[in-house]
Specification:
Elements (H helix, E strand, L loop, with lengths): L3 H6 L8 E6 L2 H4 L18 H4 L2 H6 L1 H16 L5 H12 L2 E6 L5 H5 L4 E3 L2 E8 L5 E3 L18 E5 L8 H13 L2 E5 L11 H7 L4 E4 L12 E3 L3 H16 L3
Helix pairs in contact: 6-10, 8-9
The protein binds 2'-O-acetyl adenosine-5-diphosphoribose.
């Protein structure tokens, strides 16, 4: 059987290659963070898609904040798993690298990755609804729900909700990376939420091979050059070691 390193060697990568990684909730599953669409994705009777909207916040900021407080409490006890750690090592060792995540749990940063675009924001940042100022806020649990800014206005989580645009600069930098990628890794995303879902296709159309890591098939699978079926925490460390070898930076 052909080894993973042999399969990666077919892509003619070298130290000048740009490696782009897109991650989704599946990469944090083994850290114990519930995924969005998995069976553990419900809170009380609510679906994420019904709470993570500007309309829900306008109607009922208390309930939306209770849900975020609950998620912050869960994530605050979780640690990066071997997949986060392996990607942080890629970030450290590969000269041209970009990690794009849809996750708001901050676990890539906690693992030590630095070239990270958090497309959907971060659970531990808040934004003033009046002034737009963004602060880090790690208070868990929150003393006041919903929390208020010093100016008196409501604070909101600094995350992107359904129906809201991703900040333009983050989106542009992500598309730019995908257009210039030499290799794209896609880890633990159901690839159904745009625009992130279209990024692997963009890289593929620009000529980059795509490697998918997911226990299940997704819309990426039909055009992935390599599909690795399994858990990120088990597969990504091995993949990272092979990739560093192939790039000659191991
Ligand atoms: P989903 O919950 O939609 O998908 C999680 C994916 O991870 C699925 O394809 C699973 O098969 C896979 N998975 C589960 N366990 C895994 C493991 N151990 N290793 C690898 N993969 C595993 O999450 P996302 O694709 O991230 O957006 O969802 C995208 C966006 O939709 C989220 O960022 C969020 C959500 O609504 C916003 O909040 C704006």
């Amino acid at each position: 059987m052909t080894s993973l390193a042999d399969r990666l060697s077919d892509f003619n990568l070298d130290v000048d290659s740009l490696v782009v990684v897109l991650t989704g909730a599946g990469i944090s599953a083994e850290s114990g963070v519930p995924t969005f669409r998995g069976k553990d994705g419900l809170w009380k009777t609510y679906r994420a898609q019904d709470l993570a909207t500007p309309e829900a916040f306008e109607r009922d900021p208390k309930t939306v904040w209770e849900w975020y407080d609950y998620r912050r409490q869960i994530v605050a006890t979780k640690r990066p798993n071997p997949a986060h750690v392996a990607l942080a090592e890629l970030d450290e060792k590969i000269p041209h690298f970009q990690l794009i995540t849809q996750n708001v749990d901050g676990l890539h940063l906690e693992a030590g990755a630095r070239r990270v675009i958090e497309l959907h924001g971060n659970l531990f940042r808040v934004r003033c609804t009046a002034e737009g100022t963004v602060f880090e806020d790690r208070e868990v649990p929150l003393k006041e729900i919903p929390p208020h800014c010093r100016c008196g206005a409501l604070l909101r989580p600094d995350v992107v909700w359904f129906g809201e645009p991703i900040p333009h600069d983050l989106l542009e930098r992500s598309f730019e990376a995908c257009r210039h990628a030499s290799l794209m890794l896609v880890v633990g995303t159901s690839a159904v939420v745009q625009p992130a879902a279209s990024m692997p296709l963009l890289a593929r159309q620009a000529g980059a091979p795509v490697v998918e890591i997911n226990p299940e098939e997704t819309p990426i699978t039909p055009f992935a050059d390599i599909s690795l079926r399994g858990r990120a925490g088990e597969i990504v460390p091995e993949l990272a070691t092979s990739l560093l070898d192939v790039l000659g930076v191991g």
